[in-house]
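Hi U.,

Before I forget, here's the chain from the pilot set. I'm dumping it here mostly so it's searchable later in email.
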Amino acid sequence: MSGMFSLLRCMFLCLVAIPSLRAQTPILVSPSDKLLGVVDTIIISGNNKTRDYVILDEMTVKPGDTVSEESLLYDQNRIYGLGLFTRVDIQYDSLPGVRFLFVDVNERWYIIPFPIFGFRDGDPQRPFYGAGLLHNNVGGKNQKLYASAVAGNDPSASLSFSDPLFDPENRLFYSASLSFNRVRNKSEIEAARSGQFDEYHYGIDATLGKRYTIMQAAAGSVGFRAVDVSPWEPGRTVSPRGKDRYIVATLSYAYDSRDLYEYASSGDYLGGFLTKSGFGESSISFTRFGADLRHYAPLPFECTFASRLTGSIVAGGAIPTYEHVYFGYQEQLRGWYRTVFEGEDLAGINLELRRFILSPRVFRVNSLPIPEEFTVWKFGISVAVFANAGTTWFRGDKLTWTSIQSGYGAGIHWLLPYSYVMRTEYAWNQFGQGQFILDFRASI
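Structure:
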């Protein structure tokens, strides 16, 4: 265990060494970076539907800036991260009297009914399936209109609309949603005590937020929750009738300088939230705090060091089982991948060293009888070594080193078209027990 203690201390020191976050857009120039020149104007092409401002608002480079190859690659990844384009190219050029950036894109197909298939919590043994309708770019403004119906594991239905910049002058965004989920109980403690049961979740939410800079945003949301369980047992809901009805409000903040959201190679992410459940209208009354801190540092030999620290703490009244937190579902510990650790609070840390063996690149497939929007595919392959540790606990529990679970290993990460990531890995826990991992999400 002494080796694991040293590993945890190293993890902590790596995270606290993250550079201080800056409110201003960073100057993405390293000593070895090649400066290209000053930009007088930015020209955008290929965006037949998308408004120019959607692309310009995501770029750190503005007219009058001196650009480098590194800053153009950074902006290229940020534009691709909008999820609106299958290809993004940025070139610097000049003509007598003018120096410009030429941004050329291929748009995705925006209005599409589509099948839904996936694996709950990345677990291939828990498939779900259904159908949805998505308009990914309403009015060319990056607005999202989404409706879905899903069967299989944890069936659900939802309807949502969001506008990431409905007031460009004040940089305001909003969203609204309706949702229903039938969730199989995740609490193994409760299942062992009184048997399995289903939870029925109904929700309505509205969010209003402000994007202060290209990298910083804050939001407030308010909603209403209804949770029913069948059959009822004490602890499954706070209400003795098995039906919780309560108002929920959340304040959140995010700083995000990552170059590519689904698989970042540089930048930072700092997210935090405070959620209050219950305002005197029901027996529900508790508050949850949460934070998610990530750092991506480019290293020599085309490597990236990725790190993440996450935590969730609850305070207040009684906590029903559906508000417990877990490792083993959405959050997982490699080395203990399908083992469920349950509590009211959670803390975890994750380190990963990556290197691309096939840098992300775009391929055009013209031989298939498919619409043009589906002919541009992006692929990449990365190898990684990793270590992680975490724990969950209930209020009043005494935390010790032995309550921390940890693991380490290596694997291959596959970057697939349309922003999908598949991971094939092998991990060992602190007791030397190994396991193969197949997951369809990035780990950090």
